[in-house]
């Protein structure tokens, strides 16, 4: 029976992971989105590449977070594909990309995509 | 012996929660039964499964341009209480688990992605008032009510750095107004109950500034009330009109629909006051505005019990 608490503690320890954000040094600078490029005409049923060009002044690795008001985003990272929803035909939809460094400093760009 | 048990109760939960890529709106079990007797409490769990494996353009079936299919599980936990005569209060906490996939051929490759989100959906409540309470003196009864749906559900669930599409998110991010009415007529020969309930939902703007279409659902229910059996058959038909969505005063294409469904069901009353109901959701007719995913079939189950508190 003595081994039970040890096993329990080991199980808890193995399941836990550190989800806290590292403390940013005072000199940390936020990443910068340079441009977002839409790789073609967006129409329903045709996926189009959307690429976010960004850099971090400190050279930190970057994480990309994508959001679209209507439609579907395929893939992840700096380049994704947008698949427009039928409801957007003849209208535009709003997309947003946020780039974060490991200290959660970020830059966000919101843009509209017209769907033909 | 008359069995009013299952008469006014119907069905199930909530289908797919958004427009655009899925059916719109709510199907509210507790809103499709009359108010309770004073001092009684009803607790219920209503499960609803909806498969959306077909795409319509108007009334015609067409291939989905994005190869989309969707499935939704919904569970409504309901509590209804009648503190004073004629008045009752219904509160519903819904949960949902929705998935939609796309499958698009691009050149010689196929693009496949699965979107999934699960969690607590938007809570709603309604206050009911019995204008004409059910009684032995009159075959008629009538109740009305109103309420709100609050944006308590999560609508920002992400996976691998991508926010899941709004149609699979558990919450809609909007405040909605709800109007409700239910009328019943008791037939003597054959002994049966006919009820018609109507639910009007007027959504407010969501997080993206889009206002989902106003939704009107009518449910016609026929229940044989003098069957001396523990299984009571119920035949239901749901009629549903959903107006197109709007954004910045503009109508959004491929939103809005009219749908008629048949919902055959049975209520098991052998363990009263515990009532179990199961049924199917079969589309009879649907006409969409533009290209939309549409429900192909569904099923529901309800577990409900009523207690007298004083």
Residue runs with pLDDT of under 50 for 5 or more positions of chain A: none
The helicity of chain B comes to: under 10%
Mean pLDDT of chain A: 86
Shape of chain B: globular
- Side by side, the strands of the main sheet of chain A go 1-2-5-4
Largest sheet of chain A: 4 strands, antiparallel
Strand order within the widest beta sheet of chain B: 1-4-5-7-8-11-12-14-15-18-19-21
Radius of gyration of chain B, CA atoms, in whole angstroms:
20 Å
Number of helices of chain B: 0
Average per-residue pLDDT of chain B, rounded, comes to 86
- Based on CA atoms alone, the radius of gyration of chain A comes out at 20 Å
Number of helices, counting only DSSP H or I runs of 4 residues or more of chain A: 1
Shape of chain A: elongated
Biggest chain pair interface: A-B, 30 and 29 residues
Structure overview:
- The complex is a heterodimer of chains A (116) and B (310).
- Chain A is mostly beta strands.
- Helices cover 11% and strands 41% of the residues of chain A.
- Chain A has one helix at residues 3-15; strands at residues 32-38, 48-55, 63-68, 72-74, 79-83, 92-100, 106-114.
- The radius of gyration of chain A is 20 Å and the shape is elongated.
- Chain B is built from no helices and 21 strands.
- In chain B, strand 7 and strand 8 (140-149) form a beta hairpin.
- Chain B is globular and about 70 Å long.
- Residues 1-26 of chain B have low confidence and may be disordered.
- The chains are: A mainly beta (116), B mainly beta (310).
- The A-B interface holds A 44-47, 63-77, 80-81, 83, 85-91, 94 and B 19-21, 65-66, 102, 104, 106, 111, 113, 115, 158, 160-163, 165-166, 208, 210, 245, 250, 252-255, 290-292.
Keywords:
heterodimer; A: 116 residues; mainly beta; three-stranded antiparallel sheet; 1 helix; 7 strands; 41% strand; B: 310 residues; twelve-stranded antiparallel beta barrel; 21 strands; 0% helix; globular
